Amino acid sequence: MTRLLVISPAPVIVRETTVILDVKFAEGMAAQATAWDGPLDNLLWEGAGQIAFPVEVERAALPWGLSTLPQGAPLPHGTGRDHDLVVASADMSGTLALAGPGRTPVVYTIEYTHRTRLDILALESGIAPLRRLRRRLWLEHQERRRRAAFRAAAALQANGYPAQLAYGGLTTDLHLYLDNRMTSDRFVQEDEQRARLERLGGDGPLRLVHSGRLDPMKGAQDLVPLAAALAERGLRFEFDIFGDGSLRDGIQRGIAARGLGDRVRLHGNVDFASVLVPWQRRNADLFVSCHRQGDPSCTYIESMGCGLPIAGYANEMWGPLCRESRAGWAEPLGNVAALAARIAGTPRAGIAQASGAAADFARRHDFDTVFHGRMEHLARVAARLGRAKDAQLQYSS
């Protein structure tokens, strides 16, 4: 049996006998513990003030071993020495010294590219020029460390096309995956899809939806201008926005100021599985994404799984995913006018066709398929390392 240690950036709040975890993370770890043939341990950092979608569980009831470190604490010397394989997020700079000769083999996971990190820095407001320069130099240094770590690692798991393209040449064993929460029971049903196609065949308003953090990084500042541009074009539409964040109050004020209250609704955060998924399956026709960064947001596959094609910006992730899936349209980054023209000018029949393509593509990348693909990859890595170790022992004897 291979002893596996998973080092994650997920938030955790420790109580006396319980821990509070992000529900998505807890579900994923429970699935890993069931699928892995051997002991599974997890290392997290404390310090989270709150968790948006929490689940509280008895620590003793967790099906995996959980250790925590204080907020900001470095990894202890010898981390991983009691395990046969370490899986660590390379989006955390504190894990980048784990891989190397004489150490426990490491499989890194990576989501953000260096370009995405620089884009995020560029969007941060209120930073003095000198501090921004220091942050930029720090990011450059960490990227050099990250690339060296990937060369020394046993394998790499890349979440999304941008990470695959940026780092695939640094390893001989790369596994691409498209992370999402769409289990088989969450996909759009035949009767829901029929109702959507009938709606698109009529003359009612086009039903638009957006979900995600209402922050500059996610492009939420473009939502109200986009709705205003659609109204100016004479499009009959309804636009429902789900989520919360730093821009929520400004978005609410913008809706009122532009007289859009009769067609744009702001809902706040809702539960993903019990509220958002069934609502999108039954009430929306097209997902709108103003996301400017190339991070591999789960929202793409999850919206597509609800039968929603996507009209969004051609960032590093949606651009290639749009081409691969044929499930929507990708317009130049930050070009609200172009995105509005695309939404208003696309025939309803084209939206209906893209709806079917979206659902079909998402089903090929459902949660179970993605999860088992990742676990099978780890098992292959462990088997390869075991064979190499046996050969080395045989040679030395």
TrEMBL record:
InterPro entries: Glyco_trans_1. Gene3D superfamilies: Glycogen Phosphorylase B (3.40.50.2000). The keyword Glycosyltransferase applies. One of its GO terms (molecular function) is glycosyltransferase activity. The keyword Glycosyltransferase applies. Keywords: Glycosyltransferase, Transferase. SUPFAM superfamilies: UDP-Glycosyltransferase/glycogen phosphorylase. Pfam families: Glycos_transf_1 (PF00534). Residues 204-344 form the Glycosyl transferase family domain. Its EC number is 2.4.-.-. PANTHER family: D-INOSITOL 3-PHOSPHATE GLYCOSYLTRANSFERASE (PTHR12526:SF510), GLYCOSYLTRANSFERASE (PTHR12526). This is Glycosyltransferase. It comes from Tabrizicola soli.
